[in-house]
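It is time I had a proper look at our fold encoding. Can you supply me with one protein entry, sequence and fold together? It will help me judge whether the discrete encoding reads sensibly. Leave the record below and I will have a look:
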Amino acid sequence: MRELIVEQMQAGIDLRQTCLESLQRPLMQAAEQMIHCLQSGGKILACGNGGSASDAMHFVAELVNRFEVNRPALAAIALVNDASVMTSIANDFEFNSVFSRQTEALGRKGDLLLGISTSGNSQNVLKAMQTASNLGMKTIALTGHDGGAMIKFKTLSTSIHIDCASTARVQEMHITCLHILCAMIDHRMFGI
């Protein structure tokens, strides 16, 4: 068991070391786009499935409430929170529309959509990205594995891609990236 603990911890350390260089530019680009959106009066919409849904909620909570210190609330909505809306869309249309319909209702030009998918192939996230793009919104993809269809999305603004086959390691890096984005937003917007 101790070997398993060391192996799992070391795999996470190794991936962080690999990402230390490769993620600096996309994280800076994503932060700049989010900051511009928020300072211009826009809002960030976030979506994903399973663990990525939890990451979307976690990120939005950090923006709306606070990250590490108190500061003014920031406009963000997790599209995974409303069970009534999601199930009615899934029932009346299809599950692939649960995020795109909400994006259509809540998104406006100048807003930003953060799509999170470990595989990069979540059809409901891709459909939301297309809807956001049609509305004139920026789109940021947070992906893993080979990036899937999301990193090939034609109007993608920024891709934060964790090139790793392990879903667990990708998810660990996703939350790290989201915390880094929170720190950069707070630093630039509030001097924190």
About this structure: The chain has seven helices and five strands. Strands lie at 44-47, 76-78, 112-117, 138-143, 158-161.
